[in-house]
Amino acid sequence: MIDVEEEERLYRELFDVSNEAKEIGNEIHVDIVPAMNALRDAAPVMPGSLQQLLHLEGHTINNWDVERDSYTLLSFAACDRALRENLTFSSAGYLETPGVRSMGPVILAMTGDEHRRTRAVAQSMFLKPRAMNWWGPNWIDEIVEQLMQRLDGRDTAELNIELCARLPVNVVTRGIGMEGRMALVFRDHLLKATGVRKVTREEQYASHIEVGRMLGDLITLRRAEPGDDVITGLIHNDFKLADGGTRKLSDEEIIGFCRLVILAGGGTTWRQLGITLYALLNDYRFWEACRDDRSLIEAAIEESARWMPTDPVFPRLMTEDAVVDGVPVPAGVRIDMCLGSANRDPSRWDNPDVYDLFREKKYHLGFGLGPHQCLGMNVAKQEMIVALNALMNRFPNMRLDPAAPPPRIVGGLEQRGMSAIPVLLH
Ligand code: HEM
């Protein structure tokens, strides 16, 4: 258990986009979007990793521990195909990073039948109706209300820390079945264990053991006393076997699932909510439009995930030779799918570099696509919808604080987010 001061310190330490990138050695000081766009305009697919193509050598992105040549997919058509054809553009590539391997068996790195069957055990808990009718009333609504109450009576706020950071980490930790007060300590251990926070090998190992112990204890408890949470669902749902039979997930499989869900669900939603808020407040017409017609909020979130996906690049491993958007790509190479440049491909969107709430609706790649499309996207969207509605109800005239340094999009190649979101609440 940590006190309020320690909690405040941890929030500032764990939810600083620049610091997070600095710690893993991939902080970028320039706006990478024009550079990614220029690459895509030169060719839809290029030999070399995105890191090499952007001349970011020295950045320790992902810490691959298997030597391979790389290719980068830059166009919408190339990334769209790679996301759909997961046997050719294989997610097993993730297993070549120690961080993912340390999580145990996780769907992110599985392919084919194994992936489909394992994901199906959890899928029903993450569908849109469950996001709205289970995650909402059980966790999201209450946590948002508590965060709003902290802002009552105030004139200013820094919403990156006071809202965007606090909401997802608490929702996902409590959704798993852990007590809210454990959220930060658990996330800190998880980031250290998976190498997202740089610590000594001994500390990394100690955190790895601690994460396993905390989740293991919770699984033991829920086996004895079922709750109404994700762990209970993972314990009770059937894994359907190819021969028509069923089995239950092992503790190790459940622990892997929880590690992934907490890691994937905490950081991304924090940063994407910040980007969405910034986009709306930066072009105040869009804040006003959403405030006056709440049915537009969902489009605001989708457009933010298209315009500035918090994670602009994802990996794959090529399992066979293929011609991708006209370019031959050999088997055995590592693939960087640059969703950032694909989402701004002018062959698909007019004025793609502009955040436009009213643009024609078309699917984008910000939540991925195909078999590995984000499992938690409905939960993430529900969190953002409830948070934005609550802000608009409470602080309809909220605006960026002109006296504070203007918010910037910062971070590394793999995770982008806001430097801060200073606002005047009234
Ligand atoms: C705005 C927030 C989010 C964004 C932009 C996002 C984005 C993504 C993307 C692009 C992928 C595909 C990765 C790949 O194909 O290699 C993914 C996968 C995944 N996400 Fe999210 N995510 C978000 C929130 C969440 C949340 C809230 C959760 C859980 C509560 C979550 C859980 C997962 C899981 C488990 C996977 C792996 C799915 C699989 O491999 O089948 N994500 N996410």
UniProtKB/TrEMBL annotation:
The record's annotation in Pfam families points to: p450
Q: Which GO terms describe its molecular function?
A: heme binding; iron ion binding; monooxygenase activity; oxidoreductase activity, acting on paired donors, with incorporation or reduction of molecular oxygen
Entry superkingdom: Bacteria
* InterPro entries found in the cross-reference section: Cyt_P450, Cyt_P450_B, Cyt_P450_CS, Cyt_P450_sf
**Keywords carried by this UniProt record:** Heme, Iron, Metal-binding, Monooxygenase, Oxidoreductase
Q: What family does this belong to?
A: Belongs to the cytochrome P450 family.
Protein known as: Cytochrome P450
Q: What is the lineage of its organism?
A: Bacteria, Pseudomonadati, Pseudomonadota, Alphaproteobacteria, Sphingomonadales
